[in-house]
Design goal:
10 helices, MetI-like fold, mainly alpha, about 5% strand
Length: about 280
């Protein structure tokens, strides 16, 4: 950046060059933000391993990180963990699609129409607090003991976060945007496609992220209750057979799936909503 100012010794203005480069600072801050959690995690794992070797932590309750890592490698090599992980991912993806899409559409409609919102909001307030895993027996009565009921309970879990965040995103739009569009003669279709959809997309992706995490949790819970395949079923099998190292290995895979879902949705959001600046990443 060049700033021009006058000098007392010379009549001509002298340029003052100030090198302002924020991007390297942002990059260094981002690298430091990634390094700190990694160091903390490594420190905890080393402490855990040392305490296990010293006998402070009982192997029956806390398997050492090395034992868990070996179990994780063996389970993937044998295909056991891969099969259970794919079953969980299939149910989570199907439930997310079947629940998030209706939640998105109804959220847009309720945010757009005040009458529809007033009519359905009491029903939403009554149904949303119900634990989604609690309706699994009811779904089993209607859909039977099978894959349909597991996917149905996952889709119900995805529906409400998507609906609420989408509706909130539409209602949070500045009314000035609507006035400007109407002054330029925008039709209702253009008002919806050019104003409402772009303005509420950040909240839509926030709802999708919440829906994905909740769907994964409910899917695993349903697998613990009524499934012979899936990470939830593997957790239950490890508990029944007292294979603590397999239990911890499965929990590591579940955590990795959660991180992968969150990271993937963040990349999609950056591509779909490039105008939204992530302020937290620059700090």
């Amino acid at each position: 950046m060049t700033v021009t100012t006058s000098s007392s010794n010379a009549g001509e203005p002298q340029p003052i060059r100030a090198a302002v480069d924020v991007e390297p600072d942002v990059r260094r801050s981002s690298d430091a933000g990634l390094l700190i959690p990694v160091l903390v995690a490594v420190g905890l794992l080393i402490t855990w391993e040392v305490l296990s070797r010293l006998g402070v932590l009982r192997p029956v309750l806390f398997s050492s990180p090395l034992v868990i890592g070996k179990t994780l490698i063996r389970s993937f090599a044998s295909g056991e963990m891969t099969g259970h992980m794919l079953a969980t991912l299939t149910r989570t993806t199907a439930g997310l699609a079947l629940g998030a899409i209706p939640g998105l559409l109804l959220g847009l409609a309720m945010g757009w129409s005040g009458g529809l919102r007033r009519a359905l909001d009491p029903i939403l307030a009554a149904l949303h607090p119900i634990p989604k895993i609690a309706i699994l027996p009811l779904l089993m009565i209607f859909l039977g003991i099978g894959e349909a009921s597991r996917i149905a309970v996952a889709s119900v879990a995805a529906f409400f976060p998507m609906l609420i965040n989408t509706m909130a995103g539409v209602r949070a739009i500045n009314p000035l945007y609507f006035e400007v569009a109407q002054n330029y003669g925008a039709s209702r279709y253009r008002l919806f496609s050019r104003v409402v959809l772009p303005a509420c997309l950040p909240m839509v992706f926030s709802g999708l992220r919440l829906a994905a995490n909740v769907t994964l949790l409910v899917t695993i819970g349903a697998e613990i209750v009524m499934a012979d395949r899936g990470l939830g079923a593997l957790v239950w099998l490890a508990w029944e057979t007292l294979r603590v190292e397999l239990l911890y290995a499965t929990l590591v895979v579940i955590a990795a799936l959660g991180i992968g879902l969150t990271g993937g949705l963040r990349l999609v959001r950056r591509a779909a909503v490039p105008w939204q600046v992530d302020v937290g990443s620059a700090r």
